[in-house]
Structure formats: C-alpha cells, structure tokens
TrEMBL record, chains A, B:
PROSITE patterns in the cross-refs: HTH_LACI_2
GO MF annotation, one: DNA binding
InterPro entries in the record: HTH_LacI, Lambda_DNA-bd_dom_sf, Peripla_BP/Lac1_sug-bd_dom, Peripla_BP_I
Origin superkingdom: Bacteria
Coiled coil (UniProt feature): none
Pfam families for this protein: LacI (PF00356), Peripla_BP_1 (PF00532)
All residue ranges annotated as the HTH lacI-type domain in the record: 1-50
Keywords linked to the UniProt accession: DNA-binding, Transcription, Transcription regulation
Protein name in the entry: LacI family DNA-binding transcriptional regulator
Gene3D superfamilies from the UniProt entry: 3.40.50.2300, lambda repressor-like DNA-binding domains (1.10.260.40)
Length: 320, 320
DNA sequence: GTGAAAGCGCTAACAA
DNA sequence: TTGTTAGCGCTTTCAC
C-alpha cells in the first residue's frame, strides 16, 4: 500500500487521519493507491496502540427474537452510530454462563463499554471483576451484584395503572405469570400490583402466580391450568410480551373449541402487544418504550465514556 | 501478567493455548496469575498475527426492530455460537450508504465472513470490491450485483399458496402493498401472485399496487386509500409483516369508527403475523421461517470458511 | 520445557 | 513535510 503510493506507512496513516502535514500532492497519491487497492486500515491493529479506542460497544441481551429486545438494540445502535461506534451483539438466552462468556469475549476484544440486560438465571456474576475500568450500563432489569449505572422502565407506574384498571372493573381474582424470583422487572410489576390491590383490601392469591421468563409455550401451559381450575381468575396478567402471547395462544385454542370470547379472563400484558386492540378477546396492554430504553442506556454509557458523568452509579427511569 | 507468574509471555500464551510443552507446575502458576489479575488475552492483538482468524462474523440487517430480522439474527447467532464465533451487528435501515459504511467497518475489523440482508435502496454496491477473499452470504433478498451465495425464502411457493386461497374464495380485485421495485422478495411474491391469478384469467390491477418496504405508518396510509376508493378491493396483500401491521392499524381505526369487520377486505400477510388467528378481522398469514433462514445463512457461510463448499455462488431455498 | 527474537498493522514521538 | 524508531499484545520459529 505505502509502496504503491511511494511513501512510508506513516504518511498513509497521516493522510487517512485527515492529511495534517502532508503535501496535497502526496495526499492525492495516497488516496489514489487506497482506491486502487481497496485498502481498509486494520482497526484491530489501530486499537492496539495505547490511547486509541476500539470503537466497539458490547451489547448483551437475553433474546433477540423478542421484538422488545430487538427494538432495544435498535435504540442502542441509533446512539452508538451517531457516536461512530459499532456493536458487538450477543444473546444470553437467560443463561448466566452464556452471559459470562459473552462478556469475557467482549472485554477481550477491548470494547469501550457494555450494555447488558442481565440474564434471569440466578448466579453470582463473577465476571464483574474482569471489567476493570470498562463502564457498564445495566438495562431493563436490576442486577443486585452489579455496581453500575442502571436504566430501568417505570415498572411500578405501569403496574399501578394496570391495577387501577383492574380494580375499577371489579376484578378480585387475578392470576400472574412471570418470573418474580429472578427477573426484577417482573417482580417489581408483581409487587406494585400487590400493593395497589392491597390498598383496596384485596390480595394476590399465591396459587395464581406462576413463573416463566420468556417462553411462549410455557406461558400457554400455565394459562391452560388457570382456565381449567374450578374457580377461574377473572384476569390473567402477563409480566411481558412473550408471556402474553403464550396466554393468547391458549385462548386461540379455546376459541377453536367453541369457548366464547367473553367467557375468557381478561388478559393484561406488559411491554406492548401489537394489534392488541384488534383481538377478539379482551386484552389490555401496558406498554413500555424499548427503543427509548435502548437510547437512554446508550446515552448513559456515553456520558461515562465522555467523563460527563462521574461518581457513583446512577439510576435512570424511562417513562412508559 | 507474565511477570507475576515469573515466566515469559510465550509460556502464558502456550498455557492458554492448551498447555502443550509446559510443565504442569508452571501451568498452575500461570493459571493462578491469570485468575489473580483477571487477565483476558487481547483478541485484537491475537488476530493480528498472520494465519489467525478474528472470530468475528459481520451481520448487516435492515431493521432490528422488525421481529423477522431479530429472529433471523438469532438464527445466525445460534450457529455462530456453536462455531465459537461472535457477531458484529448493524442495521442499515434500507440505506445503501449505511450498508456500505457498515460493511467497510466490518471488513476493517477483519471479520471472517459477512451475512447481509441487502438494503432496498437501489444503488450500485461499490463495496463488493473491498471484500477481497472474505466470503459473504446474501440472505432473504436478491442482490443482482453481488456474486455471492444466496439463501432465500420460497417466496414463490408462499405466493402461490396465497393466490390459491384467494382464488378459491372468489377474490377478483386484490390490492398489493410492498416494494416491488427494489426488494426482490416483495417482487417475487407479487409476480408469482400475478402469474397464479393470470392462470385463472384474472390480473392484478396496477392501480392497486403501492410501494412500501417496512414502514408501518406508510402502509396504513395506503390501506386508507384502498378503503376509501369507490370500488374497494376484496383483499389487501401485505408483502411483509410490518406492512401487514400497518394495514391492520388502519383497520383498527375503521372499527373504532363503527365500520363492521366483515365489511373490510381480507388481509393476506407474508412472513408471519403473530396472533393472526385471534384478530377480529379476516386475516391470513403466509409464514416464512426467519430463524431457519438465519441458521441456513450461517451454515452456508461456514461451509465456505471451512472450504467444504467451493466453486461458484450457490442458491439455497429455505422452505416456508 | 522454556525463552529470545521477530513481526502482524498501526501511530506517537522524535529526527532529519 | 517526510521518514525512522519503537512498541501496543500476541504467537510462530528457532535456539537452548
């Protein structure tokens, strides 16, 4: 490359860096050679030099096929792109070991920062020690053992609104499907729901609470159980989108079997349900804003990278 | 690191590479030092050596918030993970220049291979020359100027099935929303539809064809037009998922205004419509399998990387 | 079994 | 303005 232009590698570097201290003529020669060879500087080598950054952000989400996380990633990318960064992306599938591997690999590629949706599987995050000075933003869920910035949805507000609606309609027996043990967002939604109902002199029946994180079929089977018990709940609350879809899958089966739509419990879904208003069954969605969540997570990360934000971990709330 | 273990960097490298030619004792010392320092070898430096590979696959999709592409990426990741590779991911938003930038950056990070969903914006792909020996797989859509392996859905089969259904029900006036000019998948679906209807002595009315790629609101506004013309079509065909959602958004508005569900044209949607069977309006979905598409794309890429596949570009079809 | 030397592609610092 | 030197962190080759 340098040979073709008849200059030294330094001159190539300088030209590509903006051309400071290079004769226009020489620059021209370099540019020409670059084009002729389709030369692309090796970013990995460049990042090796001290003081240079890799231009990479590591993003670990739980499940790419869930549109919530896809949209989240889109929000992250939007900001990252505006800041000239590129995304290393992986999904954990809620597995703690996969999360650990993924992050170790991100770090070994010298990402400048990390954005992580913590995996639900409960396990100590031994990888935090490896972070060193690399900033990390935890999004969508709490992670007790991570001493880092958090960007969360307003789970309590969403849950309160849901509770208000349910109470206003006179529901007394409501079921809940979600992983309240390991997924903080689900737990927050559940607890606030319980509080709001408690304030109205009601309580969640623990026999009507089932744990699932993201699995459509699992959720469907819990819904089946609820529909089959003698004293059906009057509403089923799905802690997220995928769980909601699972419940509705079971509803579709029931309708096929001749069950009437208004004989089925109301379904309340968190996180958005596309076309919920067009369904033949009674559904209510309490939507969060995954794209803005992603954007905010990325902005928060960049504030650390820029040194704009200093000090202890921050906690940001993205309104629903 | 090497100092802490009292050995040379070479010995560390050897130990981490499996420990060939290192005394178990010394290995132990190295392992211990690694743990103590939370040492992670620098993958970028490692990849710098000749003959080493980066362990990265570049994936360029059009829109992460579309669950179709999210699921596609999941399929890619599944295979990549099994092969110990990691994913550099970016979305093009259908923009040709963004596609070009993205791929240039992937290449400058020395990805081992690329998987690309070509952006719809028509523009010559000048970046192909930069590929050098890096294999690329084109997925989901054709890209005429790319001389590379392709992994496509069976658009024609899906369209034929849709046409059969429509014809069986006596539809004669059907509208189509999709970008038949620049998105080959949409075009293939449209053309096959036309062929099948032609065989039945009917034809698509060109005034009932509108171009949109992925935009929900755009699609909704076209649907609005179709609903407002005097001689309504009896069916509206959406070339993909997002377009279908757009059409249905408009339907939801109409229902709110008191329009009866059975007064609205049937909607046929390609690529899957979650919960389509639960909608209050008549909808038919012709689903493809994005996850398998992603898996197949990744497998095809690895066959090139492994040297299992040689010779000219292959064309694979993933059944719907 | 271990280490010294060399070089992957790049750029900051210094020299010419 | 341009080039030489050196070193980022790693691994391959060769010597011991």
């Amino acid at each position: 490359m340098a040979r073709l232009a008849g200059v030294s590698p330094v001159t190539v570097s300088r030209t590509l860096a903006g051309g400071k201290n290079v004769t226009p003529e020489v620059q021209q020669r370099v540019i020409e050679a670059v084009r002729q060879l389709d030369y692309l500087p090796n970013e990995n080598a460049r990042g090796l030099r001290p003081g240079q950054h890799s231009g990479l952000i590591g993003v670990a989400i739980t499940n790419l096929s869930n549109p919530f996380y896809g949209t989240f990633a889109l929000g992250v990318e939007e900001i990252a792109h505006a800041r000239g960064r590129y995304i290393l992306l992986g999904s954990t599938g809620e597995s703690a070991s996969r999360e650990s591997d993924l992050i170790a690999n991100f770090l070994s590629r010298r990402v400048e920062g990390l954005i992580v949706i913590p995996a639900g599987e409960p396990a100590p995050r031994r990888w935090v020690r490896r972070l060193g000075q690399v900033p990390i933003v935890v999004a969508a869920r709490e992670a007790a053992d991570l001493d880092a910035d958090r960007v969360l949805m307003d789970d309590a507000a969403m849950a309160r609104r849901a509770a208000d609606d349910l109470l206003a309609e006179g529901h007394q027996r409501v079921a809940f499907i979600g992983n309240i043990v390991t997924v903080s967002a689900h737990r927050a939604r559940y607890e606030e729901l319980g509080r709001a109902m408690g304030a109205a002199g009601l309580r969640m029946d623990p026999r009507l609470v089932r744990g699932v994180t993201d699995d459509v079929e699992d959720a469907a089977s819990h819904a089946r159980d609820f529909l089959d018990i003698a004293h059906q709940p009057t509403a089923i609350i799905a802690a997220n989108n995928r769980i909601g879809v699972g419940v509705l899958r079971e509803y579709a089966r029931r309708l096929d079997e001749g069950v009437r739509a208004d004989a089925l419990p109301l379904v309340a879904v968190f996180d958005e349900l596309e076309l919920g208003d067009l369904l033949r069954v009674r559904v209510r969605a309490y939507a969060s804003d995954p794209r803005e969540l992603g954007r905010t997570a990325a902005r928060t990360l960049f504030e650390r990278l820029d040194g704009v934000a200093v000090g202890g971990p921050r906690r940001l709330m993205v309104p629903a």
